[in-house]
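Chapter summary example.
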Amino acid sequence: MSDYQLIGPFAQLLPMTNLGLKGPLSDDNLVVIKQAGILIKDNQILQVDNFEKLYKTSQPLHPALTKLNRPMVGLPGFVDAHTHICFGGSRAKDYAMRNAGKTYLEIAKAGGGIWDTVTHTRNETQDFLTKGIIKRATRHLANGITTIEVKSGYGLSVKAELKMLRAIQMASTKCTADLIPTCLAAHIFPKDFEGDIPAYLQEISEKLFPILQKEKLTNRIDAFIEEEAFSPDLIHPYLAKAKKMGFDITIHADQFHPSGSKVAVKHQAISADHLEASTSKEIDLLANSEVIPVALPGASIGLGCAFTPARRLLDAGTSLAIASDWNPGSAPMGDLLTQAAILGTFEKLSNTEVLAGITFRAAAALNLKDRGKFSKGNVADIVAFPVEDYREILYQQGQLKPIKVWKNGKDSLF
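The structure predicted for these 414 residues follows.
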């Protein structure tokens, strides 16, 4: 069998290769290759060009040919840089109560909130959690998402967090999409912990972190910086230890109150996610750092609150990734493309800014440099839609589904 593969012709192909990581992006800057082909070697991108040209020049290589029999628009596989798809239970009751006007505190007193998911997740087996991740990741893949970040954070003890991260690790061996695990043991303070917040964070960092490294469960540590979760002062030693041990840092920042962005910048986090409450001060702080803002429109839709100020962030010179925040509480929809299209409408983002936010800018938010663009040597992750004009994809606001998804050069829609 040949090590080479040629796919095409695509009516349009968007390589996303000439676009910057930070700042606004105009549709005028978007390169669109018509009647294009993709030449792949060993599951990696080798060349993107006119299909007929590639067909002729590649014949000495004897590539396996995948001839497309209808018009399609091709893009790099989508990247969802923030999800919580490892969980047990449902929070449908919370959703109904929230829409009926109940407050977060009232919902929590009625037995809802994050602690409800913690209780259900702790009670489930690792095998059950693994199957749930696979089911949700498979749905994501069908929607063109070939790389999926997955957080723990519904365990909130060394034992339960390990169960979640081992479930994510097991699921990753059975999923076609790449799963990127993240430890969110600093999600909320567990109400059953016998001690204070510093003692909990110390226990996690001393007992859990070494196991994460020994079992190679994750190289990413996340923390929720919020009045109801962990304050900037209390979280600093925890993040400093994680950084010293070599973990990448990411932060749940500025969701309800503006405090997390400063923490993200201080600890040189890869990303700061949420940012719905960010003010001009936080936007300027992020713009003068290498931290990548990640907008989570699914949480805004689920909670009925303001969107991340994506337009202001981009105009200030930041990057912008867009992720689903798929979780059982605040963002149960889990439809990245729909959410990204809606965010684009409300924040007046160009098509290019939205597509960059779910491809190479999202990859950068996971510190992944080998995807999100059709660059030579990148993984051959490709999503194709059954249209002739790429603008139809966001115009149809998630209702247009991929007709083909290739993961590492292999057709993954069965």
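To summarize the output: The chain is about 35% helix and 20% strand.
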